Amino acid sequence: MLSVRPAAVAGTFYPADAVALQSQVRVCLGEVLTPGSGVPPKLLIVPHAGYVYSGPVAGHAYARLAPWAAQIRRVVLLGPTHRVALRGIAVPTVDAFETPLGRVRIDGEAREALAGLPQVVLDDRAHALEHSLEVQLPFLQTVLGTSFELLPLAVGDAGVADVAEVVERLWGGDETLIVVSSDLSHYLPYDDARATDRTTVARIAALATDLDGYEACGAHALNGALAAARQHGLQAELLDLRNSGDTAGDRRRVVGYAALALTAPLEDTAAADDDEAQLGAALLSRARNSIAAALGLARQPEPSHPALAAVGATFVTLHDARGELRGCIGRLEAVASLEDDVRRNAVAAAFDDPRFDPLQAHEWQHVRVEVSLLDAAEQLPAARTRVEAMRHLRPHVDGVILEWRGRRATFLPQVWQQLPEPQDFIAALLRKAGLAADFWADDLRLHRYRVRHFEAAASMVAA
Fold it and tell me: Is residue 458 pLDDT above 70, yes or no?
């Protein structure tokens, strides 16, 4: 039987009602207007006050995770202790942490990896009432869904080297995200706080490791995490800096909040970006040429890529000169090589989509071609209601498969552009499956998946 640490601050720091909580988190995430740098964050620094105070600031950090949500499988979460005096770093013994949005599994292997470190103790007391860690979970659940595991670390009186050693041991690869929870100055007048906090975030961005508790209440966790970040050559970006006087509080005594993302240097990701672009060009050229050949038109050179030999699943989507859908066919299961799959789906999208007449040669120069490369689908937990099911969806991130008693339908993530509200998205997906828009059943199942999306303008496909 699972042992669970129940939510301690639901109803005070954030709503206890799941629907209200999800709505508030989405509002915080929705305030972000800029898409980010195109580099996945390795480490986030976020505040931990009540959501009405610091939620919009935290949202700037968590929104950066959306493009890489599918690859994040482990979150290492560090925060200060507010209620229990602690020497060292406390790891819980329980199997899961719970919020109104559900349970988050504890990563037992990560916890075991810390065994034997003298600065680490097993201690549930330090976690029982601690809000600095708990308030991060609804954001993580909303952005990452149910596919990640958690290792929460309550950091008490611990030195830089002690914390850095723990972070280094858990550093991992792209599957691991590190989150440090900390507010900034406390109870200064508004203008004084702004000046103090600007200095503090400049020191954080410089990867200082000698912050004190007056600058940041999570100074012990921050110093060690920044030491590890320095060792790995991360670069910090300030995403938001405000205080409670800017959000929902009195300006006579405010608390400072900052959101920062730390990433690998751009040059470290250039090779990966270039490889992704080469794969996209290889897939698009094969999709275009397969259609052109069927129309008796000239073909273009096809760049090679080693991934084409791997088994994969693609969708090919065509749009006409007005931007209207002209065909979309694909496969959800990876059963053929990418080379064969994209060629087959391109021809099917052009000539076999039952919603459209077969493509004609005179249309070809105006057709825009898209290829979506699908990740493996993940089944979502069974849901008794539509509202419950929607809590697991990540708008503008997830493709969704709906299945019920032999009926099946899917929408690619691009459909969120036309149907941005989850209730409308699900209603349309139900109709696509031949069901009523308000239908639901206990045995209805949803799966979600991510895609890598490649697109060629019509001018690139002219004969």
Answer: no
